[in-house]
């Protein structure tokens, strides 16, 4: 028997796919893997941050406040030294909301008011909640104000701010530790963090909506007027051009969806959806427009 060294057949190591198609396939697979890993980091970081004791969160904001104050900078965590009728009213209403939400020590709210003409309100670390004049002056009645307060207070109660920060830090660390983290991989991780935060924030918003509606029902004995807060938001923007993708790439559920969800939640819990709304104090608009508030 005679043995021969045969040459391999032509094209044996050449895939059937075009090289460009193969490159695109591998690139897409790598991108998807990085994004999924970033989403996992964001979720894990948010979950672990939620386990941090609330006292530690307050300690951190106190340290930041002290450091900024000593440096002569403005601190978002400094207490408002204002005893105006507006502040008194907001704090009294806030105390009712805290009681309705059954918020317990050491969890406490530090309510801040800004006279900027901005339609916004938000909650951040350490129980600090910020209300803006631009939003308050458009509220139709006290029930909508209570829904606003209860929604933001619920973010604090459910530890959403610290969880959001924890998720963002985890993604940032993941990007920094990867080779080339400052380049393409870093941008991919940024995309992963953004996508995760968008989805996570919508979940947080929905949780706070439900919690806030529960507080409104407990205070007034019905939920009527709570949805007017989101009717107000809907009036701020023309949703006729909002499509499905706009709903996905939004940190908040669409206003119409939120209104429908509130009605469903009320019905599911057997809460009365009809009742008399409570007027804001007759001097409310004057308080908002008074200098120094």
Descriptive notes:
The chain has helices at 19-50, 54-70, 85-101, 133-136, 142-157, 160-177, 184-220, 228-236, 244-248, 255-269, 284-289, and strands spanning 110-114, 121-124, 128-132. The protein is mostly helical and 293 residues long. It has one domain (20-70, 82-289). A hairpin with a 3-residue loop joins strand 2 and strand 3. Mean pLDDT is 82; it is low at 191-200.
Keywords:
293 residues; mainly alpha; three-stranded mixed β-sheet; 11 helices; 3 strands; 60% helix
In terms of topology, how is this protein built?
Layout: H1 19-50, H2 54-70, H3 85-101, E1 110-114, E2 121-124, E3 128-132, H4 133-136, H5 142-157, H6 160-177, H7 184-220, H8 228-236, H9 244-248, H10 255-269, H11 284-289
Helix pairs in contact: 1-6, 1-7, 3-5, 3-7, 5-7, 6-7, 7-10, 8-10
């Amino acid at each position: 028997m005679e043995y021969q060294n045969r040459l391999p057949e032509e094209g044996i190591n050449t895939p059937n796919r075009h090289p460009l198609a193969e490159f695109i396939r591998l690139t897409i697979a790598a991108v998807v893997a990085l994004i999924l890993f970033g989403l996992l980091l964001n979720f894990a970081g948010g979950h672990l941050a939620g386990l941090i004791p609330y006292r530690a969160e307050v300690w951190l904001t106190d340290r930041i406040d002290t450091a900024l104050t000593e440096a002569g900078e403005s601190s978002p965590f400094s207490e408002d030294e204002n005893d105006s009728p507006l502040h008194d009213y907001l704090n009294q209403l806030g105390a009712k909301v805290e009681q309705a939400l059954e918020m317990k020590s050491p969890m406490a709210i530090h309510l801040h008011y800004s006279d900027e003409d901005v339609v916004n309100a938000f909650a951040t670390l350490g129980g600090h909640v910020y209300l803006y004049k631009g939003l308050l002056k458009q509220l139709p009645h006290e029930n909508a104000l209570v829904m606003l307060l209860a929604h933001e207070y619920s973010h604090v109660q459910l530890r959403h701010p610290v969880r959001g920060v924890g998720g963002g830090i985890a993604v940032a660390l993941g990007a920094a530790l990867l080779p080339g983290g400052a380049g393409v991989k870093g941008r991919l991780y940024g995309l992963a963090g953004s996508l995760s935060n968008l989805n996570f924030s919508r979940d947080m918003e929905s949780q706070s909506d439900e919690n806030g509606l529960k507080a409104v029902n407990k205070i007034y004995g019905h939920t009527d007027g709570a949805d007017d807060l989101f009717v107000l938001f809907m009036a701020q923007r023309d949703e006729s051009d909002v499509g499905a993708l706009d709903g996905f790439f939004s940190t908040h559920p669409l206003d119409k969806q939120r209104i429908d969800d509130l009605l469903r939640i009320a019905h599911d819990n057997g809460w009365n959806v009809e009742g008399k709304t409570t007027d804001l104090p007759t001097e409310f608009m004057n308080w908002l427009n008074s200098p120094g508030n």
